[in-house]
Amino acid sequence: MKRRQFLQGTAAAALFAPTLAREAMAQSASPTALKMAPQANLTSLDPIWTTATVTNNHAYYVFDTLYGGDLDLKPQPQMAEGHEISADGKVWKIRLREGLVFHDGQPVRPADCIESLKRWGQRDPYGQLLLKAVEAWSAPDERTMEIKLTRPFPMMLDCLAKADNAPFIMPERLAKTDATKQVTEMVGSGPYKFVASEYVSGSRVVYEKNEAYKPRAEPPSRNAGGKVAHFKRIEWPILPDPATAASALAKGEIDWWERPLADLQPLLAKSPDITREVIDKNGRGSIMRLNHLQPPFNNPKVRAAVRMAVNQEDYMRASQGDDTSVWQVCRNLWWRGTPYYTGELEDLMPQSLDKAKVALKESGYNGEKVVIINPTDFPDIGPLGDVTYELLKSLGMNVEFAASDWGTVIQRRNSREPVEKGGWSIFHTTGAAVGWGNPALSNLVRGPGEKGWFGWWTNARAEELAEEWLYAPDQAKQKQIAVTLGRLALEECATIPLGQFVIKTAYRKSLTGMLPGSAPYPWGLKRV
After folding, report:
1. 20 in a domain, yes or no?
2. pLDDT at residue 31, rounded to an integer
3. What is the Cβ-side half-sphere exposure of residue 177, based on CA atoms within 13 angstroms?
4. Count of domains observed in the chain
5. What is the pLDDT of residue 4?
6. In terms of domains, do 431 and 474 share one?
7. What CATH number is given to the structural domain containing 224?
8. Which positions fall inside the Solute-binding protein family domain (predicted)?
9. Residue 165 sits in the same domain as residue 205
10. Of 205, 223, 95, 204, which Cα lies nearest the Cα of 166?
11. Can you say whether the dihedral through the CA atoms of 320, 409, 49, 492 is positive or negative?
12. Whether residue 433 sits in one domain with residue 396
């Protein structure tokens, strides 16, 4: 029996058992508690150490940011009360809101913010550009942070309001941890507290309302505005089996399933008790990331052969199903709907196995092993690796498929060792299209080498273009630079795009206040 038929059959039995559903709902529903099945197991807690989306989502519960981006992606003060800029644009003074307190009872100080930004800037592409421009950090008083620059940084607020892999503020003592090492103690100042005593990786994550949190007065908008926590407790039951998650949602054992499997969406649509909604209208991009440090993908000609062979429709159908209303091809590292998308780069991605075989033969590839690290517990990502495995075999490459849970994948992709010593060649992932929407935000087009994202593409010209974009005199020049950079990154196979899709999250109709955005925000939600 095919996977889709099996899953649909198993889930259908749960979805259409109304008596069981009513009994379970009566037992589990609570006005003060929420249960959400997240997209994947939470194995890494530190949002600076990893770019895993599930960790970023977790961080929004625990931490807060100086600024947030509203639904129009405009920066708004969050922890900040406001700011002043010197006449020459080289000095920024950011004043903190009064009464900000960490979960351990300590006040939030400028020193906490400074060390948090410094640590974040070591790992994040936008942060790296900011740190390059900083001459000195200081704290003139107990609520003011001062940033002295070597030159004006025109997009300071956009940088500090970054939504995906955001500059979350931690206590100074935690923020001083080496950025290449994980912080495991979760102390923030956000609307929820992480309950370490109830955390069991692979089973459950628990958060409790931070009673000391003072929301802003403005209405919530994406990751800005008033973050009002209506639930006293939120649980994340880890449900990697889609049929189990669908059954739990149908019976009311959980309130929200963040990322329902595409194969089960038609069944969920038939339930009168479930709402399905696209909360991230811009969607997500699927990508293949190659290891540029080790053979065979330290050879740009081998990388190019793989790029030429990729057929995005195969990847989208495998991961998102046959409903073409929820996915589309995008042969560009600037995604559809973002400012710098200018059309399909078909010359670079001809989707031709024959051309790819010729290119591989001419590349000098000598049978080096390609190791694909791939998750078995992440339905949006796992099928991407399956398609790549078959594709590379058809090209005649020596391929090994290393299947594991997602937590193991995000640990292993840190390794820079050869594959014989536990390294890797390829991993796949997805990310918010707007989070990869410009040269400062996107890891996909940046080439800082070993200081950059996993895969470690090195290209000095790419880094020059990113900086030129940042300081460009107008939007027209910015677009020209971004388009040039996007093409360069695709030519060099910094990243290979695999298509674009939207997710219909699913939740019980008893929930209200669901916010649009690129993360499953907990604030504003309540039960009716």
Report:
1. no
2. 75
3. 18
4. 2
5. 52
6. yes
7. 3.40.190.10
8. 74-427
9. yes
10. 223
11. negative
12. yes
Alpha carbon separation from 189 to 96, 107, 124 (Å, rounded) = 13, 9, 21
Contacts of 9 (CB under 8 A, 6+ apart): none
- 94 belongs to a structural domain: yes
Q: Whole-angstrom Cα distance, residue 67 to residue 73?
A: 11
- Residues 295, 338, single domain; the answer is yes
CA-closest candidate to residue 256, choices 499, 521, 517 = 521
Listed as ranges, residues in the chain with pLDDT below 70 are 1-29
Within 13 Å and on the Cβ side, how many CA atoms surround 61?
Answer: 27
Q: Tell me the Cα Rg of the chain.
A: 23
- What is the bridge-based pairing of β-strands 80-85 and 134-141? unpaired
Instruction: Single out the residue of 376, 265, 320 nearest to residue 12, CA to CA.
Output: 265
CB neighbours of residue 74 within 10 Å? 15
Q: Are residues 384 and 270 part of one domain?
A: no
Task: For 94-118, give one letter per residue: b (16+ CB within 10 A) or e.
Answer: bbbbeebebbeeeebbbbbbbbbbb
Same domain assignment for residues 57 and 156? yes
* 8 A C-beta contact, residue 43 and residue 50: no
Asked, for residue 227, whether it belongs to a domain, the answer is yes
CATH of the domain at 426: 3.10.105.10
Domain encompassing residue 376? 284-501
Chain position carrying tokens 């360069």: 488
Give phi and psi for 13, each to the nearest 5. Answer: -60, -35
Same domain, 510 and 411: no
Q: Are residues 468 and 521 in the same domain?
A: no
* Alpha helix stretches (DSSP H) within 370-417: 382-395, 406-412
Q: Which amino acid is at 114?
A: I
Pairing of strands 369-375, 398-404: parallel
φ/ψ of 3, rounded to 5, equals -55, -45
Helices 242-251 and 18-28: crossing angle, nearest 10°?
A: 80
How many CB atoms lie under 10 A from the CB of residue 8? 18
| Token reading at 405 | 């849970």
For residue 448, the 8-state DSSP code is B
Q: What φ, ψ does residue 129 adopt, rounded to 5°? A: -65, -40
Chain-centre distance for alpha carbon 296: 28
